[in-house]
Write a structure and sequence with these properties.
The protein is 92% helix and 0% strand. By secondary structure, it is an all-alpha fold.
Length: 487
Amino acid sequence: MSRHRTFGQKIGFGFAITIALMILSGAISVYALRHVVASKDRVITDNGKRLVDAERMHVALERLVSSLRGYLLTNDQMFLERMDVQKKKFKAMVEKLSATGTTGVALLEEVDRLSNAYQEGGDKVIDMRRSNLPMEDITRFFEEQMVPRRDAIETAIAKFLEGEEAALEQASAESSRSANMAILVIAAMTLVGGLFGTIVAIVLARALGDQVGSAVGKIQSSAAELQAASNQQAMGTKEQATAMSEINTTIGELLATSRQISESARRVTQIATDTAAAADGGAMTVDSAQSSIAGIRRQVDLIVTHMLDLGKKSQEIGSVLDIVTELAEQTNILSINASIEAVTAGEHGKRFAVVAGEIRKLAGRVGGSVKEIRSLIDGIRSSVNTTVMATESGSKAVDAGLSRFGEVSSSFKRIAGMVSTTTDAAREIELSTKQQTSAVEQVTGAVSSVAQATKETEISTAETLQTASQLSHLSEDLMRLVQPGQQ
């Protein structure tokens, strides 16, 4: 059955297999890319968000501590309201982190337990302040009970943050490994597709060459018989000589036409060569642009790293501000004690009381400046988080751009392959046309030498008819090879 298939059917079968392999490769590539994108999304939405929530929990704790200190210093009800708000925020962050992840659960439970203990101590401090107990007793209780509890919470939160950062780094590494695996799979499928296409092309070329060679051999045999019969008619009548002259003129025109076709085929070959060079240049340009976008991707990752470092530095500044705040509070307490001692000293302590009042004002201004600095640090942290999220969005856009450039580069390569095929076909046409021109020149010489038909015209005519019949059958065989449905 394979011998009776047409050229179009065999070529179509080869292309169908190649296209099916390309579709399979594309499906695998899409699946791999989706897996990589999903992995990156998990890193951003899960690990990154948990790290941000942990920072928010830490900020809520710092504000809670600051509000408690503010109430101790000023006895202002506004600080108690702020404490209630920060307690709710702190609890909400702890519950959210516990519900959205499986890592660090024990540390979160420890943070929750320590925060409850700290809040209980804070309630005692508030009751002591409301009861107008001596400031020295309140300060001693605060230093002995509250400060160690706060330090314990800070330590637990720091450990939790370290664990979340490690989880984020691990998730990023796993995502990178998935991306590398996807690249290897796509490259392997591309190599397999290229090898399979080459094998199909070789098999089709051999099969078609065998069929065409067999048919051409039969045509050559029949043409030789037809030429022998034509030699017997060399001494034809005068009318035949006139007809031969007209044939000679027609063959001359055919010769000129063949030369024009040969020149056109040569120009087509040149144009196809230039087109292939342009396609290769376009592919190189796309590869260069793809390399540039990859560089942009690396810069985006570097910006994310710097933003995270900036967040860490702002956290360190917050710790320094805590120390400054504690110094201001201690200074204020000392100034209050100094004022009390000055009053006790009577007339001799008035100047000392003035100095103590100035020191208390200075401590108040320092506390206010610390609050402003802390507000600026909170703004910086918010900007850093926003910048990190925006940079991650830019990274996604860069990934999409890289994918699109890869598709454009593949298209240029396919165009270059098609143009190469066109160039080869044009060169074959040019060579065939030159051979045809040479053959026509030879036929022209042979026809010019024909003068008269032979006396055995009838016999030669019968042989010619028989040969023509054979050629007709052979032409039908060739027609069935190149056109399906021909009988």
